[in-house]
Amino acid sequence: MVIQMLSKMIVMIGHYALRYGFAALLLACMSATAAPTAEVAPYRIQPGDVLVVSVWKESDLQSEVLVRPDGGLSLPLAGEFQAAGHSIEELRSAIAQKLEKYVPNAVVTVAVKQIGGNRVYVIGKVNRPGEFMFSKPIDVMQALSLAGGATPFAALNDIRILRRDEQGQQAIAFRYGDVESGHKLEQNILLHSGDTVVVP
Predict the structure, then answer these.
(1) pLDDT at residue 1 above 60?
(2) 136: CB partners within 8 A, 6+ apart
(3) Which of 11, 63, 75, 92 could staple 110 via S-S, CB 3.0–4.6 A?
(4) How many angstroms separate the CA atoms of 160 and 123, rounded?
(5) Which CATH superfamily is domain 50-114 in?
(6) Which long-range contacts (CB under 8 A, 24 or more apart) does 174-183 make?
(7) CATH 3.10.560.10: does it fit domain 119-199?
(8) For the residues 6-26, what does the mean pLDDT come to?
(9) 76-89 pLDDT, tens per residue?
(10) Which sequence spans correspond to the domains of the chain?
């Protein structure tokens, strides 16, 4: 009798473990597939960057080029390109297309040898004001961290990001206190090359 009862209990425990174990596994799988994957924006070439451009089996078409202040660059045979603001893949595709009439089915490779163009500036009441280079996107909080944080008398809720674009120059407000406390996180924008963070 006791053995039969124990057997029934083991079967029941196994049944529930199996049932809820699979349910938990299913929920975990659903959560994993439903979780959005953050896409990393491709690197955009900037004036001051040094690129290496090569064409497979064409040693004469290998160049190390500096992106000029106007954003352009020159390549043998291919000519002039506007590189600034474009991704590496966009530039590679444009070069391959222009070389097609000289080198059919050209296999073009573009690599960034030295990043010299992506810079932001942090000025005002911070511990290490200055110019900061970056190779991957950084936000306002990260830029402030690079500058050593604010000094004790900084007006943290009056920070401004100065940005110059096609529409002219604009000042973007940033309230440190909001972001620090986890509110209005949309203020913590990704900085563009050339942005200046002003901490009064």
Answers:
(1) no
(2) 40, 43
(3) 92
(4) 10
(5) wza like domain (3.30.1950.10)
(6) 174/140, 176/144, 176/150, 179/140, 179/141
(7) yes
(8) 43
(9) 888 899 998 899 99
(10) 1-37, 50-114, 119-199
